[in-house]
Amino acid sequence: MKKILLILSIAVSLKTTAQSNAQAFDWAMNPGANGNKLYALHYDSQGNLLALAHASDSASFGGSIVTALPNSNYPTNNYYIGKRNTNGTSQILLQSRNGATNVYSNFSDFNLDANDNIIVVGATSAGHDFGNGVTLSNKGYIIAKYNSTGVAQWAKMYNFGNPNMSAFTTKPWSLQCLPNGNIIAILKETSGRYAYIVLDVNGNELQYKEFQLSGSGSTIPVITTSKNNCFIDNTGDFYLYYNTIDMSATPKMVLSSVTNSVSTRIDSVMITNTGHSAVSYLLAFRPDGTKKYFKGFRGTMVDLAVEATTGNVLFYWKQYGGQNNIAPMDMISTNTGTFTFSQVYCGIMAVDSLGAYIKKSTETPSLQYQYESILPLGNFQLIGTLEYANGNILTAGTQTYSVSSGGFFTWFELDQNLTPSYFVAAPLYNQNNQLAKDPISNYGNKVAVGLGWYATTQSTININGTILKANDKNTSFPTRYNSPYNAVGEDIAIAQFDRTLQGSASGIFESKVQTMDFIIYPNPAKDYIVIQNSAKTIGDVSVVFTNILGETVLVDKTTSNNLTINTTNLIGGVYFVTITHQGKSSTQKIIIE
User: Fold this and answer.
1) Contact 434, 387 (CB under 8 A)
2) Cα–Cα distance measured from residue 586 to residue 580, given in angstroms and rounded to the nearest whole number
3) For each successive 10 residues of the chain (593 residues), what is the average pLDDT?
4) pTM score
5) What phi and psi values does residue 224 have, to the nearest 5 degrees?
6) Of 225, 103, 110, which Cα lies nearest the Cα of 177?
7) Domains, the chain, ranges and CATH?
């Protein structure tokens, strides 16, 4: 996508003329239809995008065909990982079906290690042949490692001591790879039981701890965590949560260790509730699986994301109005203190690695922004999917948008103050037809997202000039199913947009940015930037550069009116310049070419 750089003599603001901002998309593809589903997106170290999806009928990932085999004339799912390269070509790296009898296994999630090896997790009720001589028998949850080209390396099976298990949670795993190559997995069973597992790069088990979660609420506790596998910091500390419905005065969570099916209580959390039905518990653990801290709140967590370098925890919170004593969203000034179902407070919270409150987004109950999944960018910035109700004005930075009926979704970016800075709205849409998918991934300024739509209400969508056609029955594929199994299902689409556009229709970049009494230029920059101080009072000025991961990459200071900083050693991309002067700090984004 061509970007236009305007050289201005003063700081400019980004202006949006196309409020849906579909021009921010670089490309889009439709892997298939009729019940196909998208599970995860991850960029590799080279900027190629990998996607895990399943085909319940057929799929075409960039021209590579994936089909699902029948089982007694009933449709089954074939899970696959496709790769879209930066040059636009695509291929299928691996499939869950390697033979005609391999129709009972599923892949529910995946992640990449530092060497772009693929770690896949799922479940099987009939064993599995991963190829390359790697096989598993019996029934249970599976975890396997493939190399970057999709060749199987090893596999493990876990079944909580039940080799004949046949019931599985829908998405049993949470999975993340540490910088040292270790793999950390959280395995959820259906009855509030879960396991914490650490494997090394060769599949050797370094840690296995089994726990039983119980509570006083009416629902079976189901442990969960980040929808995009951002639940571990670089030290190995990890964070989980679970939500429950509990109308009792003092709801309680109990955690027990399990050894040889014998449970031993190890900790509990009790809170004062006073009639609030939704209760959420945040559980923080050390790398060895021991407790770091546990906390209970009124309200509901929808997603959680951990900044790897800082250990700060961001989570999307939803809470009914009036509960103004212990839940994080009680910092809202308009909270009346009177419990009511008519006001729903939705927002992003940030706590530090010890669970202490840091900041929150500013939300108005009437807007009811419904964030569904969030992805941390560092320095408290994040990208999130957001469902938007009709009749309200959606606002971010200079952008506004509204619809008279129905609703639509967007991808939002929040700045370091957890304030919406811009959004990239759905492409040309039919209200209430398109839905954002949870998976999000980013590589520098590029962001990969997923969406779904139904052919019955919208036959095509236009994503920045790319026309995606819904395809409920492609008769060129050999495997067909009879009614009712040939019913029209959901199409899925994968798209990539560019963060540097910040939703700007014209693609304008700032040539100078103003922060407090300082002007930073040129922007974009190549070899240097100048920080010009227009304040009458000078004094000590500190300058800190951080990258999009929140890592500090350059530090400087001055007491003069002008500071020139050499940027030749910085890799091209987006950076954030924080200037601190007389006890005040301000951060601005710059681009290094």
Assistant:
1) no
2) 7
3) 26 32 81 81 95 84 79 76 94 80 78 95 89 90 96 94 79 88 89 91 95 77 89 93 80 84 82 70 92 85 92 85 50 48 73 85 60 89 77 67 61 86 64 74 92 78 80 55 65 87 38 56 82 68 79 84 86 81 73 80
4) 0.78
5) -150, 175
6) 110
7) 22-501 (2.130.10.10), 515-592 (2.60.40.3080)
